[in-house]
Design a protein that fits this description.
Length: 225
Amino acid sequence: RWRVARVEEFAFAPLSPTGLVVHDTLTARASPRAAGAALAAAITALGGEIVIGAGEEVGPVIHATGWQGLAELSAAFGKPLGTGVKGQSALLRHDAGAVPQIYAESVHIVPHDDGTVAIGSTSERDFDAPGTPDEQLDTLIAKARALCPALSGAEVVDRWAGVRPRARSRAPMLGPWPGRPGHFIANGGFKIGFGMAPKVAQVMADLVLEGRDTIPEGFRVEDNL
């Protein structure tokens, strides 16, 4: 459901000069880092092994190697196939309750059920320290507080930075690695990577384990070559 609503309908809302907001029930709230930890725990509980660093290759290999992997692919094929875009985010201590996330002036403000609120993110094409937050995050935090006064006194409890893989087409890049039998690519999700991850996993499992190709047009490795 998509509707225009009065801002006073919502206990946790951005400032609105018009007194109006768009309320969109298609979107949801999630904590990507908590989801990743839950997935890792599930893999371990089911008997899988997570190896940090170089591991032994046994059977087919899916290269879900992020922005560094896009650099390797670009070198392998002699053309730019993608790059990384740095993003910085923060976690504030504020219990907003079970309320919708806020998106205003390109800032996401996402309440979590554990009494925190995540804000993000910057979008940096040029960077020197991929995993290090800097003054650009300070600017983002100040902007989020100005947009949502409920956060004005909230303590910053965590700050982090990472790099999103942006394929040349801006869409996920999925399929066999050309010229490398038994090797597959799942990369380039960029801004939709987290939301698309469950479907990407299903499509890649079908391809690698069953030989069934259900990759959508526009998402294929060849579309970037």
